[in-house]
Write a structure and sequence with these properties.
This protein is mostly helical. The chain has two domains: 178 residues, Up-down Bundle (Growth Hormone, Chain: A); 198 residues, MFS general substrate transporter like domains (Growth Hormone, Chain: A, Up-down Bundle), CATH 1.20.1250.20. The protein is built from 17 helices and no strands. Helix 2 packs across helix 3, helix 3 runs antiparallel to helix 15 and helix 9 packs parallel to helix 15. The longest helix has 30 residues. The protein is globular, with a radius of gyration of 22 Å.
Length: 414
């Protein structure tokens, strides 16, 4: 596939941020047990527990948007610390709650602060590296979170034997540890101020002129990103049930998720292959979606753990390509001083998908079975690959429009 593309070394700021987020991810396991806590400790029905979880999911949408605005106005580092500290307070509140109403209140509070640190984290990476290194940097962020996720499962298994509330305490501790690390080791940044001064020293555009909701490419990315997030979350939620339907152990899903994380980490060097790095963003995303479709089609045909392992490796390679390229493209679209808001708008795709995914996956599994679920998700992934064509067209048109003033400024040019 070609020789490795020569890339620059990532700055120390990026590596420190990756390490801090990995530590935070080690404790990010409590939400998976929120409905269980509500049902067992307070005797609530599954439907009531689901409503509380849905309220949390809805609250994460304004949280992501607020994180983007605060990142560009308050500063990246301050917003990250604020979000992590807020998560710690809310999680400790859930752990100490004495009634279902208190749990619901703290769950909504957790949702309102849960996504605050995502846009500034992603924007800090965009500010710290050049466009050529953004794909690698965002892919490494995904890998760091995957590594933390592997350890999170082991910690959850141990603490869960003491009591579910301890999971929320441990999650709060990891948030505080991450906040302290970021506050101490990461450099302070300058927020956008009135009159046009931005995080980047020479910002030609006032912050008030940054309007991400009017950017056609960003809106196309938001649409495709929402569908992708819906597919991804259905994999996370449906895989254990699908295995059980086919006579395999639901616990084997943990093995498959671990294989996915290992693949994402081990395959990082592939991103620096010349042929892959030379692809345009839409072409690379289309390739990623095709790989995702192939892996999901493999799940549709798999009736053994071995076959499922092969399918997992394939779709994880697609995930590796998609996440790095998508966030890098959105960061490149943003005008100076608007990176946080652009990434926040794109990031709410996960909030939309988080509300829809549980309903869609369970209904399909219940009424049609695993083969239809995975085949349908594979078809949707192929559609996402085809959907990169309009993205490429709009990007080409934008590039031509930018070049017109440059040509017009040359003396003698008609």
């Amino acid at each position: 596939m070609g020789l490795m593309a020569r890339g620059g070394r990532l700055p120390r700021t990026v590596w420190l941020l990756l390490a801090a987020r990995a530590i935070n991810r080690l404790g990010a396991f409590s939400l998976s047990f929120l409905t269980v806590l509500i049902s067992t400790d307070f005797g609530a029905s599954v439907a009531t527990a689901g409503l509380v979880s849905a309220a949390f999911g809805l609250a994460t949408i304004p949280s992501r948007l607020a994180g983007g605005r605060l990142a560009d106005h308050l500063g990246r580092r301050r917003t990250i610390v604020l979000g992590l500290a807020g998560c710690a307070v809310a999680q400790l509140g859930i752990a100490a709650a004495g009634s279902l109403a208190e749990v619901a209140v703290f769950a909504v509070l957790l949702g309102l602060v849960f996504e605050l640190y995502e846009p500034p984290s992603q924007a800090m990476i965009a500010d710290s590296v050049g466009p050529a290194d953004r794909v690698r940097a965002y892919s490494l962020l995904n890998a760091a979170l995957a590594v933390g996720g592997m350890g999170a499962g082991l910690i959850a298994a141990g603490l869960g034997r003491w009591g579910l509330r301890w999971l929320f305490v441990a999650d709060a501790v990891s948030c505080l540890a991450c906040a302290v690390i970021i506050r101490i080791v990461l450099p302070a940044d300058r927020p956008v101020r009135r009159g046009g001064a931005a995080l980047r020293p020479a910002s030609p555009e006032p912050a008030a002129d940054i309007k991400p909701w009017r950017d056609r490419v960003l809106l196309l990315m938001l649409a495709s990103g929402t569908v992708y997030a819906l597919v991804y979350l259905q994999v996370m939620m449906s895989l254990p049930l699908s295995l059980a339907r086919r006579g395999m152990r639901p616990g084997d899903a943990g093995v498959l998720f671990t294989v996915s994380a290992v693949t994402i980490v081990a395959a990082q060097p592939l991103l620096r292959l010349r042929r892959l790095s030379a692809l345009s963003a839409p072409a690379a995303l289309a390739l990623g979606y095709v790989l995702l479709a192939a892996g999901l089609a493999g799940y549709a045909a798999a009736h053994t753990v071995t076959a499922s392992l092969v399918a997992t490796v394939v779709w994880s390679l697609g995930d590796l390509v998609i996440l790095g390229r998508s966030y890098a493209l959105v960061a490149d679209l943003a005008p100076p001083g608007g990176t946080g808001r652009y990434l926040a708008v794109y990031g709410i795709s996960w909030g939309f998908a988080g509300v829809a995914a549980p309903i869609v996956s369970t209904q399909i599994l219940e009424h049609a079975g695993p083969a239809v679920l995975w085949s349908g998700l594979a078809v949707v992934s192929v559609a996402l690959a085809v959907g990169q064509v309009p993205v490429a067209r709009v990007l080409t048109a934008r590039e031509r429009k930018r070049r017109v003033p440059e040509f017009a400024a040359v003396p003698g040019t008609p």
